[in-house]
Design a protein that fits this description.
Shape of chain A: globular
Helix content of chain A: 25-40%
Largest interface: A-B, 30 and 30 residues
Structural class of chain A: alpha/beta
Distance between the termini of chain A: 14 Å
Order of helices and strands of chain A: EEEHEHEHEEHEEEHEHEHEEH
Number of strands of chain A: 14
Largest sheet of chain A: 6 strands, parallel
Oligomer: homodimer
Number of helices of chain A: 8
């Protein structure tokens, strides 16, 4: 059984550990306990999210408030990954991101931008802001666009919402370019996560509610991919033409039970 | 010489006949006279636009105000074309369009929508409106999206602006579908325009400022494609990897002189 060899875990956060409720976020039943059980079993665990609307510190605080044993250093998100890339390549970004996420870019030179970073700006995806990013890209001799994940949509209290991937496609089409994806499902992101765990890909299972971004992305890098039936999961996901999870379980708690062979 | 056989003409409107000025639209120099010369020469002429922000009547009135001899019946635009399709296929659209264009959809049943029509909504491309269209598409058993043209961008007084094609790509990606393009560069649109002129495709020249949408689209249907260096034209357009116009001229007046062998 494939899961016997699992020595480390990656959990997606939104839709797996918590969901939006009418009066704020609510932990998915059993998920606080699931995180505790993984810690008690001594399995290394990281939280692998494409969240780009806020900082890791604020996100960790929110999750702690829901009862999770989690610290911000254990959260792997696209913002610090893109900051590494920007520094390595001496790039100065124009940021099309959610204002709450700006502290993640502290120390990054934003003057005279020579690339665009697009995150999940949600309601800040206005026509004017999109045009601003578009006009900058079209002015650059080598238009360079980094997207923080390439998610299609995510679930909010009032329904599914367009994610950064959709707006990335809009800019890609208008500028005739391909964005560099930072975050899930980019192989570099999963590879860095596996290295953090000091394991081999085949020893790591990714548990997520995004069939393509979480499960497919992890499987493409040699990890195991487990889909949960919470968050943005849709029944159609169990019959996808190109992505087949190693298994599909009801929720994070069931996934952890399977891994821990309880 | 290819242009000797031309017996009818299609003119793009925006960027070819007029451009945005700081105090409103301004006719491209020589273009009012160019339209007059075509009429005097007795060549059938239609105005072939992807304009979807307004009605043909309002557009014709605006052009008449600039001095053009034009009537609304001679304007071929995507809105009436999509209305024909909606009626033929008994479809009820959700309209993601610019409010000024709504009169074009008079008589179309908008209740309980089973498809989405996306036009150039410009500033009405808000996050909420895009999500509304997205959520409807995702609820349909067979998501069906019609886009009124698939332009990448157009030129406004204050710079290039994202066109309907970019926002169509956003919805296509999020919903994992391909939109049906109504308008340029769809072959059905050019074919209908040629039929209106009662000519063969090889007898018709399309004159436009959009290399891919106007020139490439026309050429794909067997028409001649002439690019003008006004409107959204960019010098890079003269060295495009896949589209090569039959000729590139400075403006509409020069194109008409070429056709009329003046």
């Amino acid at each position: 059984m494939a899961f016997r060899g699992v020595r480390g875990l990656l959990f997606d956060i939104s839709g797996v550990m918590y969901e939006g409720g009418s009066s704020g976020p609510v932990a998915v039943p059993g998920s606080v306990d699931a995180v505790r059980r993984v810690h008690e079993a001594g399995l290394p665990l990281r939280f692998c999210t494409n969240e780009s609307q806020t900082t890791r510190v604020i996100l960790a605080t929110k999750l702690q408030g829901l009862g999770f044993d989690i610290c911000s250093e254990d959260i792997l998100s696209p913002a610090p990954a893109v900051c590494r890339i920007l520094r390595e390549r001496s790039l100065r970004p124009h940021l099309l991101v959610y204002p709450d996420a700006l502290p993640e870019y502290h120390g990054i030179d934003l003057r005279d931008p020579n690339c665009v970073v697009i995150g999940d700006a949600a309601k800040y995806f206005t026509y004017d802001r999109l045009n601003e990013a578009f006009q900058l890209l079209l002015k650059l001799p080598q238009p360079l666009l980094f997207c923080l994940g390439k998610g299609k949509y995510y679930k909010e209290t009032d329904g599914l919402k367009l994610d950064v991937g959709a707006f990335t496609c809009a800019l890609e089409y208008a500028c005739n370019i391909k964005a560099e994806v930072v975050g899930k499902p980019s192989p570099a992101f999963f590879t860095a996560a596996v290295q953090e765990l000091q394991l081999e890909p085949c020893q790591v299972a990714m548990i997520g509610d995004d069939l393509v971004g979480d499960v497919g992305g992890a499987q493409n890098c040699g990890l195991l991919g487990i889909l949960v039936r919470t968050g943005k999961f849709r029944p159609e996901d169990e019959h996808h033409p190109s992505v087949t999870p190693h298994t599909v379980v009801d929720d994070l708690s069931a996934a952890v039970s399977l891994i821990l062979q309880e």
